[in-house]
Amino acid sequence: MKMPQLSRRRFLNHLSLGASAPILLPLLNNIALGEEGKVAPLRFLFVVEGNSVPPQQVCPIGIPFIEREQRNGYVEHSLDGSTLPTALKPVEQFRDKLTIVQGLSGRMCSGGHSSDHGALGAYHANQGRSILAPTIDAVLGQANPGIFENLVLGISSNAKKVVDFNCSAAARGRSLATLLHPSVAYERLFGSVAEGEAKASFQARSNLLDYMREDIKHARRELGSIEKEKMDAYLSSFETLQSTSKRLVEYRDTLKEVAPAVTDKYSSTVETDRLDAHFELATAALIGGLSNCATISSGVGFPNFNITFSGLGITTGKHPMGHALYNEENHDAWEMSEKIRAFHFQLIARTMRKLQSMPEGDGGTMLDNTVVVYLSDGAETHHSRCFEWPFVVLGDANGRIKSGGRYLQYPDYGTKGHRTINALYNTFLHAAKIQKNDFGHMDPNLDESMHRGPLSEMLA
Amino acid sequence: MPGADLETDSAKAFSMEELPVFMKTYCADCHNPEKEKGDIDLTPIIENLDLAGTDILEHVFDMVSFLEMPPEDENQPSYDERQQFLKGLGSLLPGSEIEMKDLFAQPAHGNYVNHEKLFTEPGQRKAATPVRLWRMSPHIFKEQANRISRTVMLRVQANQGSDGLHPAFSYMTPPHAFRDHAEAHSFEEATTELLFNVCWQISGYEINSPKSSDIIQGFLKLKTPAKEDWKKMIRLQYSMALRRDPTEEEFDGLIALGEKTRTETGIREALQTVLTAVLLKPEAVYRFEIGQGEPDQYGRVFLAPNEVMHAIAFALTDKVPDPSLTNAMGTGKLETRADVRKQVERLLANREATKERILRFFQEYFEYPSATEVFKDARRPNAIFANNRVADADDLVLWILGEDRDVLKRLLTEEHLFVSRKAILGREPVVFRARRDFLPDYGFQNDWVYNENQPVKPTEARRSGMLTHPAWLLAFSDNEKNQAIQRGKWIQTKLLGGTIPETPIGVDAKLPDDPHLTLREKMGKVTNAEYCWRCHQKMDPLGLPLEQFDDFGRFRKMELDKPVVTTGRIAIGDPELDGPITDSYEMMERLANSTRVEQVFVRHVFRYFLGRNETIDDAPTLIDAHNAYRENNGSMKALVASLLTSDSFLYRQLPPESMQASNN
Fold first, then answer.
1. How far A95 CA lies from chain B's nearest CA (Å)?
2. Which of A372, A248, A289, A279 is nearest to A40 (CA)?
3. What's the confidence (pLDDT) of residue B527?
4. How far apart (Å, rounded) are the C-alpha atoms in residues A420 and A442?
5. Scanning A26, B134, B319, B463, which has the fewest C-beta atoms within 10 Å of its C-beta?
6. What is the per-residue pLDDT across B289-341, written as a single tens digit (0 to 9) for each?
7. Cα gap A452→A442, rounded to integer Å
8. What residues 48-87 of chain A have any CB closer than 8 A to a CB of chain B?
9. CA A218 to CA A211: how far, in whole Å?
């Protein structure tokens, strides 16, 4: 079923731009792209769920689930005629854009409760001690920056925690902050749309940023070569804040249009409310051109993955749930984890519907140029060893990723034709027109070819 | 024995052609197509370096730099050869500025510095810390934010998971290292934005909260503040945030900012902008340790009096300098080592003032507070009172510190412990559970009559210091079992001063699930393999004697209906320590009486109070500190006082380029 779309004329009217509208808003740019024959940037939304995703939970009913050890070669199924499993039911309407990828390994990440930055980086992050390289979301975000290169939002079992460094990395040794409170994230993204006192405050803060830049430059001159790196980093951070702040002011009217309405869920401590708010923010940010790559980290990292999804009526934390997943006598944990996963896909579906309602290019929608990637932080099981890592990909990257609803199953670890998560990330890079074939670190026990290049079965 | 010398100046000029020569000489005998030790064949790389992937080069770099390769019983390269090789190899790696010297300065890498050299009197005493900016710790910032805002805006709320530490000052230090390491922290984009917001919030409180000062409220009533009015506000903020007067240039800049903002917005926003600007100044968020005066023959300068004042205050407390320190600075009484000693000893004598900082050293050193983070299934009935166990361990440390004799020895052998009053004398049904499930972990029967006169000796089983304390044993356990390997790693690194490389990528490190095997038996099936044993021999024989206790710290004689095996071995290359171990008690006794262990402890105390790793130049500081500790019967106060009056603490080494400039 296709969602109703605003016509471009209606959409432009809907924006109700006045005479003082700033020139060339990013949102309008996207609409104009089709007319100019240019291609919109490819957007990505990565949804990383803490701990594991058991491969069976993303296998549709009607497609035989084969245990890893029995997978002798590459097998591909169409989703036609199958029933999506409980976890994926919420994205039923997008089944034609759905690709389920089974059997990729990620042993270079080492495993355990969490892979930390490794899940998106394809390397052993050693509990955040070794940020060896930028993660895939950062590489994609940097290649196609909005006002922000990346946006990383998330929830944690520690509800008081405002920020975490647990999931994404901009460069070697430089973790990207995950904003854990939606209200803080809102302020960062949409603070410039404020009126009255808040508007005055925004102006005052802009003046302060200008002043700080000069003040730090002065201190840096006095220090000469002493701790130059620290002073340079402090200065450049203020410069970035300053330029971001200016751009946010320039795009204020656009942001006003796309800013979500702030409701109680933005200040709620209930994890489902927060996750819901983060998805709203990420969706608005993608639509408004604030960033072309958003990441939602739902309880990534140890021990903060142990979230109790009380908003879904669940009273068990994800840690004990993980331990009880394979209890043959009691399936409660299994069912609860499916319910949590389905909630994530409900929010993903809502984002996709919203993107689908936004016209872009020549007769298309923003969804055409958006890829949603769902994965777990800890591969296949609670104490994982990363022999297989299920992925769910939604979107065809404007025809660059084969679509139609597919289930891809790669052969067992080390078997001929086996591939690693590096290859999937290479695939995303290729879809974004970045011809890179060697993302991430290699598993020394596997042939190099299993890591290199994109998954040819996925690329159109 | 582990540990490299860091005097890099002696390394000769490097030639890239020497890389394959080094590998041929020291690596190829084992890593060739026939032997392929560790599944690594280096011959293709030796023949053509261009073929090497980054992963393998990084692996080789790590092995050679951390002295893991060549193995101890093989032909060793000279120090210079190793240095040259690393320099060349490092230049081929991403982030190629890596140098051995930088590497060993990183948190958790301190043990790679040669232990023997650190306790050998050098020809010249020239210890100093490099001039530096040390980011304020989140603990100092918490105090600062609450004091300036006149409200408790950052607070510890243990039950709600808040430690009161602001994320702008997040600790980015790796696990097992002291958190407040000067090398590890700087403000980058994400933390600067958080800092900006929290400082804006602090000045917001200063202006808008009911506790806002009369001076500020008076200023806000002015329609057009005069220059002197602005100066009053700026002086006030400088005194609270920086503890100094502003310069005329600083006044001018801030007044211009204030006036511009006032015209555009209003007086309230203008004042908030100016007050925040002071809080964001580099010297408000970094501790400047630059020194002053003419450098000596080694290029060292003494800390400026203002810097000494802050260095002492922040070494021993999380608070800004107290009036005595401020007064001493103001009257020129912080300019000699004797002046400093006087202030350090005065503060150390004030137990309440220094308790938190010194206790934190022991918490981070022993790592027992992580007991609260260990996941245990609710089906384990004694998975209760983790916070109480940690508080009991704190009490033990504070008790031993209070007596201040043989501090380390007693922390390794003490038979007494504290038992949480809160758990045992609470309300039913909590007390029922505490008696049934908690007391036995401490070595008491469940009908034990609570003794208010603490500490007490367990009635059931003997303890031997912190490593047999229920909090420590819980901290080094997982859901179902002891973490014998991690326990051994702790002893190897924190007591013996040894090093353990990271788990190699690709190793499938998983113990068998067989429920009929003890942990020792399971480990024997995996870690005894030749490839694994090279590292595990440094951990397993040290951690396994503690199998005497289970994963909640409960003493046991039997495991899976078999007598618990508690044997182990120490092998660090020190005759005082080396040899087989019968049980944990013998191990703790031997460790507690070792000179080397005492010295390694001194190295760790150095790292905590100096905020950096020791270098060979710090040898005199470590020797003096160790002597002070011994001569004062194992006094922690004497040890800390020695460190805080050392050259390492008081002198700053100027960078070579500024030395050249001053010579010209």
1. 36
2. A289
3. 85
4. 9
5. B319
6. 999 999 999 999 999 999 999 999 999 999 999 999 999 999 999 999 999 99
7. 9
8. none
9. 11
Q: Are B588 and B465 in contact (CB under 8 A)?
A: yes
Q: Is the pLDDT of residue B663 over 90?
A: no
Most B CBs within 10 Å, among A227, A244, A447, to test the B interface? A227
Pairing of strands B132-135, B286-289: antiparallel
Strands (E), B166-299: 286-289
* pLDDT of B184 over the 50 cut: yes
Q: Closest Cα partner for B172 from A122, A166, A440, A136?
A: A166
Cβ contacts of B243 within 8 Å, gap of 6 or more: B306, B310, B320, B321, B326
Segment 305-324 of chain A within 8 Å of chain B by CB:
306, 319-320, 323
CA distances from residue B519 to A1, A156, A314, B500, B510 in whole angstroms, order as listed = 57, 33, 34, 21, 12
User: Which of A204, A223, A225 comes nearest B261 by C-beta?
Assistant: A204
Which parts of chain A register pLDDT below 50? 1-35
pLDDT for B417 beyond 50:
yes
Cβ neighbour number for residue A324 with a 10 Å cutoff: 19
Residue B158: its pLDDT value, please?
63
Q: Which chain B residue is nearest to residue A304, measuring alpha carbons?
A: B373
Closest-CA residue of B relative to A241 is B193
User: 381-440 in A: which are within 8 Å (CB) of B?
Assistant: 385
Percent with pLDDT over 70 in chain B: 93
| Closest CA relative to residue B652, chosen from B299, B305, B300 | B300
Any bridge partners for residue A98, and if so which? Answer: A394
- Cis bond before residue B620 (omega within 30° of 0): no
What residues of A are in contact with residue B281 (Cβ under 8 Å)?
A: 215, 219
Sign of the Cα torsion B10, B13, B19, B21 reads negative
Residue B95's pLDDT band (cuts 50, 70, 90): low
Q: What stretch of H or E contains A77?
A: strand A75-78
Which chain B residue shows the shortest CA-CA distance from A126? B502
**Least reliable range by pLDDT among A12-26, B79-93, B103-117, B477-491:** A12-26
State the average pLDDT for chain B. 90
Alpha carbons B471 and B450: distance in angstroms, whole number: 19
Cβ–Cβ under 8 Å, residues B475 and B371: yes
**Per-residue pLDDT averaged across B347-374, rounded?**
96
pLDDT score of B97 more than 60: no
Look at residue A25 in the predicted model and tell me its pLDDT: 40
List of domains in chain A = 8-186+258-450 (3.40.720)
- Please tell me which of the candidates A233, A306, A323 has its beta carbon nearest to residue B188: A233
The verdict on a CB contact (< 8 Å) between A204 and B95 is no
Task: Give the Cα separation of A156 and A178 in Å (integer).
Answer: 10
What's the gap in Å between the CA of A299 and the closest CA on chain B?
15
The number of helices, as runs of H, and strands, as runs of E, in chain B is: 33, 9
Considering only CB atoms, which chain B residues are within 8 Å of A211? Answer: 253-254, 257, 273, 277
**Neighbouring residues of A158: CB distance < 8 A, sequence distance ≥ 6:** A304, B161
Q: Which two tokens stand for residue A417?
A: 């034709």
* pLDDT at B126 exceeding the cut of 70: yes
Looking at residue A32, its pLDDT comes to: 42
Nearest CA in chain A to B191: A177
- Taking residues B439-452, report their average pLDDT: 92
| Local structure of B569: helix, strand or coil | strand
* pTM of structure: 0.84
Q: Does A122 touch chain B (CB under 8 A)?
A: no
Q: How many CB pairs under 8 A join A and B?
A: 170
What ipTM was predicted for this assembly?
Answer: 0.87
